[in-house]
Design a protein that fits this description.
Helix content of chain A: 40-55%
Oligomer: heterodimer
Number of helices of chain A: 11
Shape of chain A: globular
Strand order of the largest sheet of chain A: 6-5-8
CATH architecture of chain A: Orthogonal Bundle
CATH topology of the domain at 98-207 in chain B: Cytochrome Bc1 Complex, Chain D, domain 2
CATH superfamily of the domain at 98-207 in chain B: Cytochrome c-like domain
CATH architecture of the domain at 98-207 in chain B: Orthogonal Bundle
Helix content of chain B: 40-55%
CATH superfamily of chain A: Cytochrome c-like domain
Distance between the termini of chain A: 42 Å
Largest sheet of chain B: none
Strand content of chain B: under 5%
Structural class of chain A: mainly alpha
Radius of gyration of chain B: 21 Å
Distance between the termini of chain B: 67 Å
Number of domains of chain A: 1
CATH class of the domain at 98-207 in chain B: Mainly Alpha
Number of strands of chain B: 1
Strand content of chain A: 5-15%
CATH class of chain A: Mainly Alpha
Radius of gyration of chain A: 20 Å
Largest sheet of chain A: 3 strands, mixed
Number of helices of chain B: 9
CATH topology of chain A: Cytochrome Bc1 Complex, Chain D, domain 2
Shape of chain B: globular
């Protein structure tokens, strides 16, 4: 009996449909096991993507994230990248702001009024990031790397990563520069190394169980600089995009599997 | 020929993997440093106590960035001597109260834009060091300080070294990863004296 059951399971396991089912089930199991509400964030993000807003009363559905207007599948995995219309390298959040102002006609002040949310009330940007990043699951990470502006941005990001400054003389590498180091009990990934950058960048943006909040990549960079005792990076500034591009390019080739769930 | 080609492919592959190697840090040129500082001035803004003057490099940061934290011995010595002069050693005993110090060592707040200016800050010591054996949640960026006084003694010279190291770590190692906690204005003279006792007092759990 047991042998037959095993045989059936094996046969099923080799059928593509089962494999897909199995992987979805594994995802589901992983998510519920961790109590992660990532999927809920994605659903709310989808609603916001399709919601008519702003003076022009249009949705974001015609927003071009780099693969053509409205194309979401795999778009996040190819960011940051250079956008000709804006003549700028942009990450997801920067591009969304661009679409909010240029497509929906919203003012920059209104669109940036509340970028980082909290546990009770996540921000529009957090919901949208969850939804759009989720549309790249299973797609290899491949940010822009051929345009001169992309190369320039990558080099700036790398220089920033190693640049010591601020009240405590820290660079990113002060904490993320050596293997097998911890802050308290938190293990520190060496983000200049593909081996460590890959699993990290494949799972941001992410839901944080410890404070029940969904966090974007702009927030992640902002909060590192806070702890580095530096002044605050401006949201969607070239420096933050360069940092994002450097880290994403270091993780190039990894299959995106976020949004993730963090401690 | 083919072997040569293979060898060169192997060599270039090895070269490809090296830049990603852990701990590898590029040296920045003076003009690159100026460029990064200009970007920081353009793309960052002051918030709370974190003012924009924090992006200006002092001679320590400049030297360490220019040399990927590995400066020539002579330059390092010059910087260390200059940094030593910044330390205000209090008169009298440098050994404070180790019991009070535990709280300072535990506290990871201070000097961030989210911290209230003037509120008592911590040293973030456990973030990077093992200190008291009772605290098992400690970081490993810095060396373990368990048994520090027991191994090194607690005479006036050792007290002076520990006080100075916490006040300005760069006086002893130009490109130390450790912040200059007194020099940066994060910790007070009293707090540093207490931390000296945490490491050196025979009654401190560190030396039990």
């Amino acid at each position: 009996m047991r042998a037959i059951a095993c045989g059936t399971v094996l046969a099923l396991a080799f059928s593509p449909a089962f494999a897909q089912q199995q992987s979805k089930f594994a995802d589901y199991q992983r998510m519920t096991a961790e109590g992660s509400p990532v999927e809920l964030f994605e659903l709310s993000g989808e609603e916001l993507w399709k919601k008519k807003q702003g003076p022009r009363n249009v949705s974001l559905e015609q927003c071009d994230l780099g693969m053509g207007p409205g194309v979401l599948k795999g778009a996040y995995a190819r960011l940051p990248r250079y956008f000709k219309d804006a003549d700028r390298v942009m990450d997801l959040e920067t591009r969304l702001l661009y679409c909010m102002t240029n497509l929906q006609g919203r003012s920059p002040e209104e669109a940036t009024k509340r970028l980082f949310g909290n546990a009770n009330q996540p921000s529009e940007m957090e919901y949208l990031s969850a939804y759009i990043a989720g549309q790249s699951r299973g797609v290899p990470i491949e940010p822009g790397s051929s345009h001169p502006r992309e190369k320039e941005s990558y080099e700036l990001g790398k220089a920033l990563f190693f640049h010591r400054a601020g009240a405590w003389d820290f660079s990113c590498a002060s904490c993320h520069g050596e293997e097998d180091k911890r802050i308290r009990m938190s293990e520190l990934p060496v983000l200049s190394s593909p081996k460590f950058a890959r699993p990290v960048m494949a799972t941001w943006p992410a839901y944080r169980v410890s404070n029940s909040q969904f966090k974007t990549m702009q927030w992640r960079i902002n909060d590192c600089y806070r702890q580095m005792r530096m002044p605050e990076p401006k949201y969607a500034s070239d420096a933050t995009i360069a940092m994002n591009l450097y880290l994403t390019a270091t993780a190039k080739g990894e299959t995106y599997r976020g949004p993730g769930t963090k401690r | 020929m083919r072997r040569l080609l293979l060898a060169s492919v192997a060599a270039s592959l090895a070269a490809c993997t090296t830049p990603g190697a852990v701990g590898e840090r590029p040296k920045a040129s003076a003009s690159e440093l100026d460029k990064v500082t200009a970007v920081l001035k353009r793309d960052f803004h002051e918030r709370g106590q974190a003012k924009m003057n924090r992006v200006e490099l002092d001679e320590v940061q400049r030297l360490c960035n220019l040399n990927a934290d590995n400066p020539p011995a002579e330059a390092a010595k010059r910087i260390e001597e200059a940094q030593l002069k910044t330390i205000k050693f209090p008169s009298g005993s440098l050994m404070g109260d180790w019991q009070r110090a535990e709280k300072v060592a535990q506290n990871g707040r201070g000097s961030m834009w989210s911290d209230k200016p003037g509120a008592p800050a911590g040293g973030s010591c456990y973030n990077c060091h093992q200190i008291s054996p009772k605290e098992t949640s400690f970081g490993t960026i810095g060396p373990s300080l368990l048994g520090f006084g027991k191994q090194r003694g607690n005479g006036p010279e050792m007290q002076k070294y520990v006080y100075g190291k916490i006040y300005n770590s760069k006086a002893y190692n130009a490109c130390s990863t450790m912040p200059r906690l007194g020099y940066a204005g994060t910790l007070s003279e009293e707090q540093i004296k207490d931390l000296v006792a945490l490491l050196l007092d025979p009654a401190s759990p560190v030396n039990k």
